[in-house]
Structure formats: C-alpha cells, structure tokens
Amino acid sequence: MTAKKKTVETPPVSSDDNASYQVVARRYRPQGFDALIGQDHIAKALTGAITSGRIGHAYLFTGARGVGKTSSARILAKALNCVKGPTPTPCNECEICRAISTGDDIDVLEIDGASNRGIDEIRQLRQSAIIRPSRARYKIYIIDEVHMLTREAFNALLKILEEPPEHVKFIFCTTEPNKLPITILSRCQRFDFAGIDVRMIADHLNYIAGNEGVTVDDGVCDALARRANGSMRDAQSLLEQLLSFASEHITLTDVNRMLGTIDDQKIFDLAAAIKDDNPGALFPILAKASAEGVDFGVLLEQMIGMFRDMLVVSCGCSKEALIYSGSGRFDELKELSGFFGTERILASMQVISQTISRMRYSTQGQILTEMALVRLCGLGRLTDAVRMIDQLRNGQIPSPAVAAPLPPPQKKNIDLSAMLSAAAASAPPTRAAVPSIPAGSGRVPPPSSVPAESEPEPASSADAPPPTPKPALASFNGETLMKTWREVIGRFGVSLSCATAAATRVEWSGEKLRIGFPSGHAGDQSADICQKGAKTIAAAFGDFVSDTNIPIEVFRTEEKAEPKRSRPAPVSHAAKREELRKKIQNPTVREIESLFGGKLEEVNDR
Predict the structure, then answer these.
(1) For 252, what's the count of Cα atoms within 13 Å in the CB-facing half-sphere?
(2) pLDDT tens digit string along 306-352?
(3) Same domain, 134 and 170
(4) Across-strand partners of 8?
(5) How many domains does the chain have?
(6) How far is residue 488's CA from residue 443's CA, in Å, rounded to a whole number?
(7) pLDDT in tens, 427-438
(8) Which of 363, 391, 358 has the alpha carbon at shortest distance from 375?
(9) Same domain flag for 159 and 223
C-alpha cells in the first residue's frame, strides 16, 4: 500500500483559493502502474509489454465506470513518452509527464467518442495522425467511450488502425465492448478491468480521509465502498460529498443521512422480526425509517445484501466472504442462517429482488416494502416442506403438522351423532350400480353419489349375486328394439350420434341388424357415417344383448328426407312502415302513448 501512495498526487488544498481546488477523484488519481488499485493483472501485463519492447499499436480497455481505464491510458502514455522511457515507471517530473497528467500534452490527444462520433472527426484524425509528434516519442490517441462512434466512423478508422504509422498508438476505452464491430476488436489488444474489491476501496478511502485530516468512525468507509459497487471514482465522489457535509469528523449517521440508507442494526432488527414471524414488529421500524427520509429502494438493496451474506455463511464460507456486512456480524449471521436455511434464504432474496424491480415503476415504495417483508415472515413453511421432503427421501414418514384446535361445536337440541349412528346401523350404505361402458365409446360414466367414506368393502366373488342374463336380439319386438336403439345412440360421439338419430327404421332380420335412412342428400350423408361406424354400433349393442358379432346393414327407405327450411324473404321498408302505421292506429297503443307521454318508434315481433 505504501508503494501505491508514492505515485498519487496529493497537492495541498488552499482554503483561500477556491478556484484552484480539485476534487478528491482528480487529486488522488493514480500516476503509475503501481498505484492502480484492484487492477494488478492489467499493471503486470502492460509493464511486461513495455519492459520486453512488445508494445502494440492499439489497445482496448474495457470495464465498468470508475475502475481506472482512462487513468491507465494516461499512465501508459506517460510510460511511452517519458524522457526516461519507454519505461514501466514514468518519472512524473518531466514536462511531458506533467502535461499528460493534466491532459495538456499536444502529442497525447484525448478524444471524447460521444461528442466526436462522426466520420468527419475520424477523417481529421487520420489526416493529423500522419504528422509526426512535435516533441514526444509517439503520437497517442486516447478515445474514451469509443463505442459511441458511428458505423461509418468505425469504417473510416479501420485502415489506419490496421496499418498505422510507426509513431502512432491508439488507446480505446469503453464500458460496452459488445457494441464495437468485430473488425475493430480483432485489431486491438483487449484488457478487461474488473470491479474493485470493497475492502480495497475502503482502505483507500481511509487513506484519503487521513491525508485530508478528517477522522471517520468505524464502518464509514465500508458503507461508502459497498455503495460504490466496485467503482473507485464513485466512492471518492461520495467521500468528497461527506467532506463537505462534515469537514472534521464523519459518523455513520452522516453517511445514512446523505445516502438515504438505514442503520445496519435496524436491518438486523428487521431480520429478527422476520425470524420470529412477527410482522407487527416490522411496521414501527419502517415508519421510523420513512420519517428519517430513508429511500426504500436502497433499504431493500441493503436487505438483499444482508441475505447474500447470510447465504454465503449458510454455505460454509468464512467471514472473509462477507461483502455487505462487517466481520463483527459474522456470529449473528451464522445464527440467522442456521434458523432460516439455504432454501428460505434463496426464496427471500427472490421476493426482495422482484420487489426492487416493481419499485422502479411505482411511487408506493413503503407499501411495496411492507408487503415484501410481511411475505418473508410467511416463508417459514418452506423450511417445513423441505424437511418433510428430506424425510421422504430417507425413507421416513414425516410427522404431520399439528393444526390449531378447532373451536368447540355449539350445543344443539338434536343429538346428531346418535341419529347418524342409528341410521348407519339400520341402513348401511350401498354402492349404486354403474352400467358398463364400452372401451371405444368415448363416454365417461357418472360418478357415484355415495361418499367415499361410506363406501362398503367390496364383496367377495362367492358372496356376489350372479349377473342377470342378457336377452337375444330375436326376442326383441319393434318397440323394444327402438327403445334399446335410443339408449345405444346416446353413447356415441357427436358426429355418430347425430347420424344414428336420423334413422327412421331399426329392425332385426334374423341375421342382420338393419338400419334404415330416408332417401335424399341428408339421409345419404347419415347413412354413410353409420356405415363407417358399424363396428362401434355393434359393440354398443353388445352391452344389451347376448348376441356377439352383430352384423350391421344400412339401407334406404321409401321415405323422403325433410327439406331444409328456407329463410323467410326479407320484408321491405314499405311493408314495415305500413305495419308500423297500423300499430299506431291501434286504440290500445294510443292509450299507452298518452299515459306515458311516449311515441311508438319500432315494432318487433320478438
């Protein structure tokens, strides 16, 4: 850590000259590879390239905001153009190094890709790149947010990027490398900058605060580092804001007021209320947080961070794996994780995450937070379900949960239990007979009306009465045969039922079951359907008669099928007006009109 501080510029702050004041993020910008925090792999790769002389002509630095991309580009430019270089340790004392640090060097051009994104700007760059540097070793172009260039600008950049003059170097910085064309990516050496560890950010903030002569309470820098989400510049900006808020001593209360966060102890109080399944204890804490101006979206982010640390503890990790909670909370997290269990922790994180997403489109942040936390109280049943599943997997029979006792029944004048016992003794329930249904009929028998609890034990085959013998088709007369036919056609599907219902004659010839249909187009269509379904009809008849393999014959009768009714001819407007006139002249209608003060407008037969 000492080596890193040697290459960080920390000029004194003059309170008398506010115009010369620089913010913390600029004054504590790293000035050498050894001062890069959290990017050791980048520093090692670039240092090795400079030492071995394997310096590329185009570099691409990618990563989130505030992780050191532009600072690394300036350090690389100083390393290449320093009067003592190329060297991995620029002196930061020569005129070139100082000019690059302030962004004023004429041979190191920093271009904002967002505001210089057109093809004309890239054409000017190509024309100026041909000219040799005025005093430095290389002419270096640093293009920040390079993904903002247009497609035409990228195409104009391709040729000089592939074969640049030997005195030109390109350094591209971007937060969205996926937006760069593959033709650009293939011509650059890519370096991915990782998010900076929370502990590294907190240590650096402590160093800055001490260097500024400000004392901080324990946990202040940790809270700022967690809020920065891996961005050193964001953390330094937050510290800058706190230095203006409390110039001599910074407390956790100052941090919570400025960031709109809630004290960590209250977060654990909320977790304790959820653990005890006590939703009533949640509302006073949330009401006090609302009075203090806490942002409920940030509160839920703190909650999900605490559950994240609880998750890693439940998985057996040590206190070094904690991110959102201090190491002093490890024992408390261990106790909570042992009570909640991994499954419930994951379910709780899912609920909180969904609530955070919903909060972006709602103005009722407090209500959504209350809903989410009350729902977390009811997730305790999930642990019981997981325990029962584990018991079943181990071959054990889980014990049922003991339900709360029901209130005692009210006293009645009639002794229902005695009546039920007497009824059960005198008339035991019997199962209603269900007619057999053929397998191919497609119909489902109706359910039995006898409750499942009162169904008797099935009788043995010896005690069952013998089945009733089925009659033969030869014993059926015309009336009985038609009655059976009407029962049979009710078992078919829609198409076959409609077709068989059109039959006008059913008779038994002694060898065949003859089904007659009237002649005509309608009768022919029904007859064709019945001919195709002859096997289904024969199988349905088999449930009522003793005959097997009943042959079916379809024939035409001498009757004519009834023609379809034609639609009535439309009534003309003149006829409607004449009908309306006659209705108006009706004395009853006139009397109704005078009684209600209305007028007849329309006549409708329906």
Answers:
(1) 10
(2) 999 999 999 988 888 888 887 788 889 999 988 888 888 999 999 99
(3) yes
(4) 30
(5) 5
(6) 12
(7) 444 444 444 445
(8) 358
(9) no
Q: Are 339 and 373 in contact (CB under 8 A)?
A: no
Contact of 333 with 325, CB cutoff 8 Å: yes
* Same domain membership, residue 42 and residue 153: yes
Q: How many residues does the structure list for the chain?
A: 606
Question: Which of 147, 167, 193 is a domain's end point?
Answer: 193
- Whole-number Å distance between alpha carbons of 570 and 147: 72
Neighbours of 29 (CB within 10 A): 21
pLDDT above 70 (res 19): no
- CB 324: neighbour CB atoms within 10 A? 21
Look at residue 394 and tell me whether its pLDDT is greater than 60.
yes
Same domain (yes/no): 84, 183: yes
Q: Do residue 285 and residue 220 come from a single domain?
A: no
Q: How far apart are CA 301 and CA 344, in angstroms?
A: 18
Token output for 426: 């005198």
Tokens of 379: 């997730």
DSSP summary character for residue 214: -
Specify the amino acid at residue 104: D
The CATH number of the domain where 551 resides is what? 3.30.300.20
DSSP code per residue over 66-120: TSSHHHHHHHHHHHHHSTT-S-SS--S-SHHHHHHHHT--SSEEEEETTTS-SHH
Which residues lie closer than 8 Å to 109 by C-beta, 6 or more apart?
139, 140, 141, 142
The CATH number of the domain where 347 resides is what? 1.20.272.10
Give yes or no for a contact between 345 and 276, defined as CB atoms under 8 angstroms apart.
Answer: no
- Reported as a single tens digit per residue, the pLDDT across 97-127 is 999 998 889 999 999 998 888 999 999 999 9
| CATH code for position 237 | 1.10.8.60
**Looking at the domain assignment, is residue 566 inside a domain?**
no
Position 403 pLDDT exceeds 50: no
Do β-strands 108-112 and 139-144 pair in parallel, antiparallel, or remain unpaired?
parallel
What would the pLDDT profile of 134-155 be if each residue is shown by its tens digit? 888 999 999 999 999 999 999 9
- Asked whether residue 202 falls in the same domain as residue 186, the answer is no
Asked if 241 and 297 sit in the same domain, the reply is no
111, β-bridge pairs = 143
Q: How far lies 303's CA from each of 23, 218, 227, 296, in Å?
A: 32, 21, 13, 10
Three-state secondary-structure class, residue 557: strand
Domain end point (choices 208, 228, 259): 259
Query: Which residue type is seen at 386?
Result: V
- Residue 86, preceding bond cis, omega within 30 degrees? yes
Contact 249, 214 (CB under 8 A): yes
- Asked whether 266 and 299 are in contact (CB, 8 A), the reply is no
Residue located via tokens 């090692």: 44
549 in the Ramachandran plot: left (φ > 0), alpha (ψ -120 to 50) or beta? left
Could you list the residue range(s) of the whole structural domain that residue 553 is in?
A: 473-560
Quote the DSSP letter at residue 230. Answer: T
